[in-house]
Amino acid sequence: MRPILTAFAQSPDRGRGLARDMSVRWALEEVGQPYDVRLLTFAEMKEPEHLALQPFGQIPTYQEGDLLLFESGAIVLHIAQTHEGLLPGDPSARARTIGWIFAALNTIEPPILDREAAGHAERGEPWHEARGPLLERRIESRLAPLSGRLGDADWLDGPFSAADLMMVTVLRRLGGSGLLDGYPNLAAYVARGEARPAFQRAFEAQYAVFLAALRA
Ligand code: GTB
Question: How far is the CA of 59 from the centre of ligand 1 (A)?
Fold first, then answer.
């Protein structure tokens, strides 16, 4: 059964692969699962038809027969649990890998999102400039231990897994910020993830949507 993913018809990231359909596309490419994509405008995302699939009116959603999922982390975990290749077979290694998926979304990503949100929503506030270094220090306080734990390893815990897919996805949001410059092993880790053929295929697919929207 070919799953159906929803994604932005016109992503505000301008084809950089930062919207949250990217991790799902990447996971599907890693496991070799063909999929279809239904593109939505912002207005369509807020209509009852989509709200029935995603209560917050967001992308991505994932439909596979009778199964309907939202939340990119849950979708990636589902794909990893139902296909070979993204989760280790050993129960302890599998549990640790799932722990790292949560770490990516629940420990590393929140301060990154706070800084992004401040950049969008608080730019006009008198305290905006003063708050910047604080937001960056909070990110650094997560990057430093992550960098220490990764060390010289290629991936977080053994072979490439859904945890790396999710962690690289989260760290990519720092692209252009300079915040990874002090952590060469994390910058190399992101580059290793981006060099994977499955990442490249996922990236090209979402970039094609961006190009098509430009031409329309
Ligand atoms: N926790 C949910 C998940 O992981 O699935 C969050 C989903 C989410 O934030 N979706 C966003 C959305 O639908 C798109 S990806 N937003 C519309 C809305 O909330 O009304 C987030 C995103 C948007 C834009 C960029 N960008 O421009 O770089 C990056 C990421």
Answer: 6
Residue 47 CA to residue 86 CA, distance in Å, equals: 34
Q: How large a percentage of the chain has pLDDT more than 70?
A: 100
- What whole-number distance in Å separates Cα of residue 77 and Cα of residue 162? 7
- Cβ(37)–Cβ(7) under 8 Å? yes
Write the residue with the smallest CA distance to atom 20 of ligand 1: 58
The answer to pTM > 0.85 is yes
Q: How far apart are CA 118 and CA 131, in angstroms?
A: 9
Domain 91-196: CATH class, spelled out: mainly alpha
> Which of 56, 62, 116 most suits a substitution to test ligand 1, by most atoms within 8 Å of the C-beta?
56
Question: What's the topology of domain 4-85+198-215?
Answer: Glutaredoxin (3.40.30)
